[in-house]
Design goal:
The chain is α+β, with helices and mostly antiparallel strands. The chain folds into 2 domains: 143 residues, 2-Layer Sandwich (Fructose-1,6-Bisphosphatase, Chain A, domain 1); 104 residues, D-Maltodextrin-Binding Protein, domain 2. Helices cover 34% and strands 27% of the residues. The protein has 7 helices and 15 strands. Helix 4 links the parallel strand 11 and strand 12. The longest helix has 28 residues. The chain is globular and about 50 Å long. The relative contact order is 0.14.
């Protein structure tokens, strides 16, 4: 990566990474209070009964946006619940207040707060916070990835045959797309897991818990923080710069180095 001509560029990114950590924890605390008392939740459908939004999602994103605006008023904001708000600084925050809303509303502890920061078209900071386990995953481009302050790395010497593939699914793609890959994976001796939160599973790849992750379509707010975590932990991703439109999303593939050839072959990607 070519060094920035601005000597204060890294300071600007680091300041935003630190804020991302703080607000992910703040937002996570709000969400956790609802998770522990789900009688307070109101839930609405979006596209279908499996695509829902809760009052907690909205309150957390409102908090994230307010805290960012207080610190960096000229930054752009893109969130799942309230869309894009354009700024002039060249920095864009990409956030999912609760990734894994379905597990969240049903009392399953597989959800997180995901916050990424872009400078131009490049993801430069990413934070995923899992309140139910108090695990904070954080990365800054060029500075590595950490979980609760300790350095993390993708799993060494892992493949799709001796590791576990994280799998994402949704109703935006044909069911056959998912079932075909699952069938081929199992026939080749592999195994998969799906917990309902793509952001959290990407963090698990970065931490060496999962070998790789695949989902045929994700939105930017679900995966941008996770992309950087995997890269900074020594893994590979299929660059989202190849997506037609950041706000429309695209395919997500990421993993430890030993999974790349097999996963690309498995899903028919180049």
């Amino acid at each position: 990566m070519t060094p920035s001509p601005n000597p204060h560029a890294d300071d600007a990114v680091e300041a935003r990474r630190q804020l991302a950590e703080a607000i992910a924890r703040e937002g996570g605390a709000i969400a956790l209070s609802y998770f522990r008392d789900r009688s307070r939740l109101t839930v609405d459908e979006k596209m279908n009964g499996q695509d829902v939004v809760s009052v907690a999602d909205k309150q957390v994103e409102t908090l994230l946006r307010r805290r960012i605006a207080e610190a960096f008023a000229d930054d752009s904001l893109l969130g799942e619940e309230y869309g894009m708000e354009h700024g002039s600084s060249g920095f864009t925050w990409v956030m999912d207040p609760i990734d894994g809303t379905s597990p969240f509303v049903f009392g399953i502890p597989a959800w997180c707060v995901s916050v990424a920061v872009m400078r131009g078209q490049e993801i430069v900071a990413g934070v995923v916070f899992a309140p139910t386990t108090n695990e904070l995953y954080s990365a800054r481009r060029g500075a590595g990835a950490r979980m609760n302050g300790a350095a993390i790395r993708v799993a060494p010497n892992v493949s799709l045959r001796n590791g576990v593939l994280g799998l994402g699914a949704n109703h935006r793609v044909p069911s056959r797309t998912i079932s075909t890959v699952v069938e081929k994976l199992l026939d080749r001796g592999g195994m998969f897991i799906r917990n309902g939160s793509g952001a959290l599973m990407l963090a698990y790849v970065a931490a060496g818990r999962l070998a790789a992750y695949w989902e045929p379509h994700m939105n930017a707010w679900d995966c941008y923080a996770g992309f950087l975590l995997v890269e900074e932990a020594g893994g590979w991703i299929v660059d989202p710069a190849g997506w037609d439109d950041m706000q429309k999303g695209g395919a997500v593939l990421a993993g430890a180095p030993g999974t790349r050839a097999d996963l690309l072959d498995l899903v028919g990607a180049s």
